Amino acid sequence: MRSRGGAPSSLQHDHMLQENDDQLAALGGKVSALRALSYDIEGEDGSVGGAGDLLRRTMGKLDAMIGAGGNRHMWYLVAFVMAVMFCLWCAKR
User: Fold this and answer.
1) CA distance linking residue 12 with residue 2, whole number of Å
2) Which DSSP state fits 6?
3) DSSP string of 14-48?
4) What's residue 7's pLDDT?
5) pLDDT beneath 50, residues of the chain
6) Largest pairwise CA distance in the chain
7) What pLDDT shows up at residue 70?
8) b (16+ CB within 10 A) / e for 33-68
9) Is the whole-model pTM more than 0.90?
């Protein structure tokens, strides 16, 4: 539906401009969603890094306890397991 000179009519031109505006608005919404998603991912990376640091510190403390305590930690573990078993046996009766 071009006019005789080969140029699009004013109605077609307005329609194309409206379509472009709609497409730009949709694209802007997608860009905003991607930006929010990237901020969420960045925040989760920080929390995962914090959990890794906590685990590293805990493992270091466990290594220090095992190295310093000799076999004493095993006796604590055995005593704890025996106490739990005794409690379960008493609860079953």
Assistant:
1) 8
2) S
3) HHHHHHHHHHHHHHHHHHHHHHHHHHHHHHHHHHH
4) 62
5) 1
6) 100
7) 64
8) eeeeeeeeeeeeeeeeeeeeeeeeeeeeeeeeeeee
9) no
